[in-house]
């Protein structure tokens, strides 16, 4: 609603950024599959961030994921679980955090003395506000700030006549330096089964997600459409399950250098994933995400405990290091039993 009225208040703009927290902060199982899980109903609470339709009667599990990106420069966490709401229905929640510290602020550090590097000669480049040959930064004038994002994503199922629809409500708190923003967004999703193929649909940031900053500016993000396919196959004699999936995302206002297909300002991106499950205990994952990064991971699962690891390979020429994720899952029932009856 705020985004709809933003043109009326004269201080609203459309942007491509702002809500990436809900796109790349996820758990290890999803990341290992290239985030291509729009149609894959895996038993993890974090799956509702990808598609809010995946609200099922899971066990009372709690999940904690830590992610290190760009060789430790960016760190993020996600805490996931479920709770009971009225009418005995369940709501899945995800608390997301991402922080970047010690970002250098060089705005007041430029020694803008021109090409000769001497103050007061009024030569070419002196006082132009641009770092030219012969100029440098005064390291004593460099300050540092941080960027932090905190998000809440809650999902529940709604029945509209004979049609089930997942509703995802997300709130974002964004701080960078001395500035602060607060936003609200909405996602809807569903999954349909056609023969042995699951087809998932998600509309994100509907009708648009808005972020209001402390200086009064409102940044609106246009909606995107995601279409996912998932095909399961079972080798019952061997106790093996095979899951192949792909995801296609279409945006009218998210064109960037990594976009795979570009048509005007529109962008079309795909991702893929493949998972092998042995005895419902051992998991092997491979994938490729929308940025073109190869992904992979391993997982082990028991009745009351599980652990998943994933890695994302960065570009060879970037020298930014690979991304690593670790997810721990534990049953709240098991925790309560250990506290009340530790024998």
Characterise the protein shown here.
With 343 residues, this protein is mainly β. The chain has 2 domains: 2-106 and 142-340, Outer membrane protein transport protein (OMPP1/FadL/TodX) (Porin, Beta Barrel); 107-141, no CATH class. 9% of the residues lie in helices and 53% in strands. It has helices spanning 2-9, 21-24, 28-32, 47-50, 332-340, and strands at 12-15, 61-69, 74-84, 90-105, 110-111, 136-137, 143-160, 163-176, 179-194, 197-204, 209-213, 218-221, 224-235, 240-251, 261-263, 266-278, 282-288, 294-301, 305-312, 323-331. A 14-stranded antiparallel barrel has the order 2-3-4-7-8-9-10-13-14-16-17-18-19-20. Strands 5-6 form a two-stranded antiparallel sheet. The chain starts with a helix and ends with a helix. Residues 1-9 have low confidence and may be disordered.
